[in-house]
Design goal:
The structure is a homodimer of 303-residue chains. Chain A is an alpha/beta fold and 303 residues long. Chain A is built from ten helices and 14 strands. In chain A, helix 1 crosses helix 3. Chain A binds a DNA duplex (30 and 30 nucleotides) through helix 3.
Chain lengths: 303, 303
DNA sequence: GGTATTGATACTCTCTCGGCATCACAGACC
DNA sequence: GGTCTGTGATGCCGAGAGAGTATCAATACC
């Protein structure tokens, strides 16, 4: 009874027919296909019966395609070829030799761990394409939920957001980045309260309310009410503003490794906000080998 | 042992998988496919095993596609859809509800029998497209051999060419087509020898050496050596030249039914060349239902 | 905690498919 | 023209795949 797909044949019939149509000779075709000739005869006959159409004109001595047979071959052959390519492609994809991962990151990630990860990942999985886009923490969490990205480098609150796995990559007490000509730029040590008069460049609060508020709290505990000169994004623009002398900004020491001219990085004594960089992904993420490979390289496999 | 096409699956597996992937529910999918649920489970499991790739992530309660599964579905679905359309199309083609016939013809055919045949054919087989092209006899025979055309309306020698079936459609003693102002245009009766001074418009000899030579022989037997004004093709141009007053040309009475102004048709008394129009096709033509249909309409079915 | 739902398993049966042997027929060859 | 060779079709049989029924195990829901 369930002998009825909407197809009056099986893949086997098509492959058999194709071979006979190519060779125009049952015995040779049978040999190519590694079946006995009678099996071929019957398969073709069955195909013709199911289709209700004669595909081959066979006298006892000669085999030739009918018009319908030729049309059938022309229609079927490209489909068979396309279908033959599918398993290999899928296996490559499942084996992590192909595919793509969509990864989001913040400026801090790009300034620290990300370049090394990307270089190593590209070395080990040259077939997997990484699609990168810079995106603030809040947007990344949203994109992860939607499945728009597979994983992200972002800055969570101390309590990791629910539903995500995270791997801590960086946790550092922030220093300050100052314009080079700032009066404190050469001071050996700085405390937060020294910066009461200095305008600060921040990121838009909506991008990461938790961290934003921790920064404000740090000022508060130092007895200072900070002046927010501007809120800019992406991160590179914040550094640009500092360079232009418009104010200072917080910065993790790791991020201060290579800096442009005209700015100076100074660590902070006493209370200061902490930057935490994690790699996060959906706990229930479907088995995505490309993501898995990326997590392995990012050293987050265990989490 | 012959369990190895280059495909690790059968059409059945693909159809089953597609349905499960759509419904994400084995029981419902099984119902849609009119199989029992266990059969589905096993087919999918077998597909995954043969592919060596997990396509579905199934907890006991929820079914979802893996990344590989989604890619597989995307690759396979259009192929399945394309394949589903094939049998119907082929059946239509074999049943004569679709397809095309390539038909060649000469000017005489188009001026006499062809329009009626085409009208009737189009009425009875609206799905079959007729591809027409005007072509001289010799070229038609070549095209028939090559299979470039399925049948042709042409002018054979008395002995039909070998390997072809033909049906005689027209056999007429030619008259002459003259410019209206020609001195003989109003003569009640003409004989070939009256035309000794009149230049003649012919077709290139290579187009039909047999007929060409029969024309010359007719002149010869009338004691006349004709003056060939020009050899032109296709036929309409010959009539054009007559109209322009450059000479006369031979013409079958049937062809003279509707004529432009400025020309006059006159029958010939005594010896005159004969035009024979036949419909011809390869005797060993493979069963082409479209051709068969055309031959039936052209009244050549019996031959 | 009980119940219902859902996918997986166990077992059996059927029937298809493939192999082997053989047939029937058409060309080829002498 | 008779014989032989090669070709596709057919008959028969056995193995095995696939489907069905019954049932299990796990999980979500009340």
């Amino acid at each position: 009874m369930p002998r009825e797909y909407q197809y009056p044949f099986e893949l086997r019939h098509l492959v058999y027919f194709r071979e006979v149509a190519r060779q125009l000779h049952y015995r040779k075709a049978a040999e190519s296909l590694a079946v006995a000739q009678p099996a071929l005869s019957r398969s073709i006959a069955q195909l013709e019966k199911e289709m209700g159409v004669d595909l081959l004109n066979r006298t006892r001595r000669r085999v030739e395609l009918t018009t319908a047979g030729r049309a059938f071959l022309e229609r079927v052959e490209p489909l068979l070829r396309a279908l033959a390519a599918v398993p290999g492609d899928i296996q490559a994809l499942a084996g992590g030799q192909a595919g793509h991962v969509r990864v989001a990151f913040t400026g801090l990630a790009m300034a620290t761990v990300l370049p090394g990860i990307l270089r190593e990942f590209n070395r080990r999985y040259p077939g997997i394409k990484v699609e990168l886009n810079e995106s603030p923490t809040s947007a990344q969490l949203e994109s992860l939920k939607n499945g728009e990205i597979a994983c992200g480098f972002f800055h969570p609150d101390v309590t990791a957001p629910a539903g995500f796995s995270t791997k801590l990559l960086l946790q550092e007490k922030n220093g300050v980045l100052l314009p080079a000509e700032h009066k404190l730029a050469k001071a050996p040590k700085l405390r937060l309260r020294d910066l009461a008069d200095t305008p600060f460049v921040m990121f838009p609060r909506a991008h990461n309310p938790g961290f934003y508020d921790r920064v404000l709290a740090a000022f508060q505990s130092a007895g200072v009410t900070p002046r927010i000169a501007d809120e800019v994004w992406p991160r590179a623009n914040a550094i640009g503003l500092v360079r232009a002398g418009l104010g200072a900004t917080f910065m993790a020491p790791s991020e201060a490794k290579q800096l442009p001219e005209e700015v100076a990085f100074r660590p902070l004594d006493g209370p200061a906000p902490e930057s935490r960089l994690v790699l996060g992904w959906r706990k229930d993420a479907p088995t995505d080998p490309a993501l898995g490979a990326f997590l392995v390289v990012a050293g987050a496999a265990t989490a």
